[in-house]
């Protein structure tokens, strides 16, 4: 997946 | 991960755990809104659907599972535990929380980062989280009682919101592609609602009187 578009926060 | 984000996650985590521990220990949930707790459980359940599809880090996965587990436990205690559910202020906790869900869903269908199931659910969880405190505010207004809702819980929720805003500012200035308008705006709305709550909380604490919110 495209890391930039992933939700990495909770 | 910056320090603001980490502290935000930790204070958020502690706010949920403090509540759960309190309910577990004193076997009472007086002053706690089940409606708000159910909304939080829905927020986590719809936001963390990506547990099954995306792996970001062990930290993220574990935290998601802990948030889900603890918020579902609180709802379970308040609904099913023989002693705890007796202390629930059912007649006072009258906010029609179901009416928050549909508008949030419609808003998520209209405004999202991408029109996919996961993204719509993600946006929905953000909108719902922003307003999930409302039933709790109404309950406080009704019972005018801050004794049972500990200062710790209030303080931790406020700290969580503040640290997340600092985290967004920090990331905006240090990362190239970091822009999340939906997260920011719904986060701000949520913080303003909490701010309102804090204002009256500290005001009543300062004057050593019971909490009284404007009608």
UniProtKB/TrEMBL annotation, chain B:
InterPro entries: ER_ret_rcpt (IPR000133). GO terms for biological process: protein retention in ER lumen; protein transport; vesicle-mediated transport. Residues 1-31 form the signal peptide. The chain crosses the membrane at residues 55-78, 99-115, 121-140, 152-170, 182-202. PROSITE patterns: ER_LUMEN_RECEPTOR_1, ER_LUMEN_RECEPTOR_2. The keyword Methyltransferase does not apply. It is found in: Endoplasmic reticulum membrane. It comes from the Eukaryota. Its main location: endoplasmic reticulum. It is a multi-pass membrane protein. GO terms for cellular component: endoplasmic reticulum membrane. Coiled coil: none annotated. Keywords: Endoplasmic reticulum, ER-Golgi transport, Membrane, Protein transport, Receptor, Signal, Transmembrane, Transmembrane helix, Transport. GO terms for molecular function: ER retention sequence binding. Belongs to the ERD2 family. This is ER lumen protein-retaining receptor. It comes from Coptis chinensis. The lineage of its organism: Eukaryota, Viridiplantae, Streptophyta, Embryophyta, Tracheophyta.
